Amino acid sequence: MNKYMLGGLALLLLLASALLWMLRPGPQRTEGSAAPDFALPDQDGRIHRLSDYAGRWLVLYFYPRDDTPGCTREACRFRDAIGVLGDLNAAVAGVSVDDARSHAGFARKHQLPFPLLSDPGGHTAAAYESLLNLGLVRFARRHTFIIAPDGRIAARFDKVDPARHAQQVAHALQALQQAGMTHSKAATLPIMD
Length: 193
Description:
Elements: H1 3-23, E1 39-41, E2 47-49, E3 57-62, H2 69-80, H3 82-87, E4 90-96, H4 100-110, E5 116-118, H5 123-127, E6 131-133, E7 138-140, E8 143-147, E9 153-157, H6 165-178
Parallel strand pairs: 3-4, 4-5
Antiparallel strand pairs: 1-2, 3-8, 6-7, 8-9
């Protein structure tokens, strides 16, 4: 082997190590812990904060990109379930690193009746341990958090099937409410696949 091949191999190993380090699982935000605060603009430029949802349930779902097949399917399922979720005293908000203009087009195209929050720096996604940062490319991982009326994480979904997820969230909300989840305690549910 010549020195150029060895140098290339060393560079390749270094890049692979860096990629594996970035993809490593971190400590999990668990059920019962305080949900990280946020202040993010929606598709209309209105700022949303966690405190805006105090006293009601919040389904905060992170998704990779506007108007891609899986993200569209997931958003439309939440759109179709908005009445059921509203009956459960739950608001829905989607979060991605796309800008507000992209969110506006996505929401208009698919008639989404809930806010899509713009997190271009990925700070909120990172706070919720839902950011995949590959250096030049970053996007939110498909994770969902049900946040209780007291601001604590009541359930976390890491493995999401966009076609079934809205229904899973509705079932989880019903279970949490039937279990007597109050403002002072959090219930732990298994993550639904």
